[in-house]
Design a protein that fits this description.
Belongs to the phosphohexose mutase family. It is built from 6 helices and 4 strands. It is α+β, with helices and mostly antiparallel strands. It has one domain: Alpha-D-Glucose-1,6-Bisphosphate, subunit A, domain 3 (Alpha-D-Glucose-1,6-Bisphosphate, Chain A, domain 3, 3-Layer(aba) Sandwich).
């Protein structure tokens, strides 16, 4: 990751601080929680989707979901290139991103923790060569899901 990328990531992630005292875990349904505490998680899942797209050189989808329970029950999950769930070996990385304590922790110990991905990012953004990532985002039509999108 170059300094410009690092700076942009630090600045943008500071706009979405994680909820205090909450630890989220990625499971079959992705991350599930009350919509009021998911803003930083949705942002960080976007980062995860971009990194996954770099790694797989494929389109990765993000879905913001609602629930049949109360309206504030929401979630966010990733669809891998096959259309299926995020591969299980990336779930611990998803947890680490979602639970990073601050922007510095997010960048330093989480995003840069995948050297094979960040080296690809560097390769594709230096010297005028850019790789465009495609990450479609879908959401349910309830108000909390629409706000999170």
């Amino acid at each position: 990751m170059n300094e410009e990328q690092r700076s942009l990531l630090l600045k943008s992630s500071s706009r979405f601080p994680p909820p205090q005292g909450v630890k989220l875990s990625y499971g079959t349904a992705g991350f599930r929680a009350d919509a009021s505490i998911l803003e930083s998680t949705v942002y960080r899942v976007g980062i995860l989707a971009a990194l996954r797209s770099l790694k797989t050189k494929s389109v990765i989808g993000v879905m913001i979901t609602a629930s049949h329970n109360k309206v504030s029950d929401n979630g966010v999950k990733i669809a891998d290139p096959s259309g299926g769930m995020l591969t299980q070996n990336w779930e611990p990385f998803a947890d680490a991103l979602a639970n990073a304590s601050d922007p510095g922790d997010l960048v330093r110990s989480r995003v840069e923790a995948l050297p094979q991905v960040t080296s690809q990012a560097k390769k594709h953004t230096l010297g005028g060569t850019y790789m465009f990532l495609t990450t479609p985002v879908g959401n349910d039509t309830d108000l909390p899901a629409s706000r999170l999108a």
